[in-house]
């Protein structure tokens, strides 16, 4: 099926528009919050929506089921990047990218051999989330330093990377089975370019903080993928997407409140002992 130019332009504009906010949040708020919001269904939503628009809602529904398990490969990418990107600068970015993509491809190859259901796909990623949260416990917290913020060139590079990844995923979906399309839709479209720019501008330490908190934010992505896998066929792409975003937002708000409550309790403990 030939994709209309208007759809391609819309995909380009949406891809560029939604990825810029995360950079501002990391600079103005914190890398911890940015790590949590990196799990918000931005890139995945764009990929699944345009897969459904360009191919069919039924194909996007099948893909979304595999996306549920595909987030495990995304976690592997973060782990591979963290292990290999120990140096600052371009050398660290290249090493982290190589390690992350190798981990992502290895896990993706394994995942696409399995016929996942909504339940087994969700349980697979939940187990991976628990594992990676435990593995990242000793990763230190580092805020972005005052280095002048993200330049327009850096933001432009990040937007271009994200848009390129979206076009690659949706293009390959036309010639790949639903299992691969779903796993590719779970690729961290917004997080990976963000890691690259953050690494180049602020070094490896803040990148480790973002990766550390990324698993905790994946709950929103899981809820989103689960919702659209249930609603694309019955409600259509637009309403299904809106329902998915509503559920994902509710989860993220509840999760951040829980984290804030837990942090307040931990902060109050030393005072109680004095």
UniProtKB/TrEMBL annotation:
Keywords: Membrane, Transmembrane, Transmembrane helix. The chain crosses the membrane at residues 6-26, 33-52, 64-83, 90-110, 116-136, 148-173, 179-201, 213-232, 238-260. It comes from the Bacteria. This is Uncharacterized protein. It comes from Halomonas ventosae.
